[in-house]
Design brief:
Strand 6 and strand 7 form a beta hairpin. With 272 residues, this protein is α+β, with helices and mostly antiparallel strands. It contains 6 helices and 16 strands.
């Protein structure tokens, strides 16, 4: 709230990654600079509750929670009402006796059945659809080939999306870790493999195709890595065309195989 960049410099892990309001990847330096430019006017009584903890390994955990706040924040000359309530998730890494954040993301909580967009969405331009994103990706110059580990994670991420599309619990069971957790674009959260797979296989969306693009890996250790990516879907859900999804997933290595342990899907709140 106070734009205290010095506190964040000590709080964030190296490496650190998160997605900005325009979908751009931010590292520790960029995030600290962004925090330094924020000024909020927040009333007393803000809350953090509904905590859920998911284990990635002995020294890496994901903490998700619900937050409520009444106020406004100014960044880059733009003042907006702070989204509330939101579902947040932070990946925490332990080094010796100190915990530091390696990723943070949050989504406004809202019910898509009401037809109301979350507060941060109301003033922006029309959300780009997945088909718009597909065209933009095809039109740009070729990106360098991914390294083998990143390519493997993108392949697994794609297979998970295909399993979700087909409501195939067996495929999803094989590709995911035991303490699987998920935060969706509406602020819904699941924790534990059984709850998450029930949620993934119980959807009523009509999905024609899925594609994972722009996969970029950030390694936290030899056996844990964060993958950021774009999810491009063709089809409809609740009668609405799919938007472009900006995803962040945590992968853990089990023997020679990478498995999905946590994922959070975002909507871009501000056009770049």
């Amino acid at each position: 709230f106070k734009g205290d960049a010095a506190s964040f410099a000590g709080l964030l892990n190296e490496p650190f990654v998160m997605l900005g309001a325009d979908g751009a990847r931010l590292d520790k330096t960029a995030t600290t600079e962004m925090v330094a430019g924020v000024r909020c006017d927040v009333k007393d009584g803000w809350t953090l509750d509904e905590p859920r903890l998911s284990k990635i390994d002995a020294d890496i955990y994901v903490l998700s929670y619900r937050s409520t706040v009444d106020g406004t924040c100014t960044l880059d000359g733009r003042t907006e009402k702070a989204p509330s309530p939101v579902r947040a998730a932070t990946v925490w890494v332990r080094s010796a006796e100190t915990w530091r954040a390696a990723f943070h993301g949050e989504n406004p909580i809202f019910d898509p059945r009401t037809g109301e967009a979350p507060p941060a969405e109301t003033a922006k331009k029309k959300e780009a659809s997945s088909q718009d994103a597909e065209a933009a990706l095809e039109a740009r110059p070729g990106a360098p080939a991914a390294d083998p580990a990143t390519a493997a994670m993108v392949a697994i991420e794609t297979a998970v999306w295909e399993g979700w599309k087909a409501r195939d619990a067996k495929v999803l069971e094989e590709l995911t870790a035991g303490d699987l957790a998920f935060v969706d674009i509406f602020g819904n959260v699941t924790s534990g493999k059984a709850e998450t797979l029930r949620f993934w296989t119980g959807h009523s969306c009509e999905v024609k195709s899925v594609r994972v693009a722009d996969g970029t890996r950030t390694s936290l250790s030899s056996t844990v890595a964060i993958l950021t990516f774009k999810g491009i879907l063709e089809g409809t859900c609740g009668g609405q065309q799919f938007p472009l999804i900006h995803g962040t997933s945590v992968y853990t290595k089990d023997g020679d195989a990478w498995r999905l342990a946590f994922t959070l899907n975002h909507l871009v709140r501000r056009q770049g």
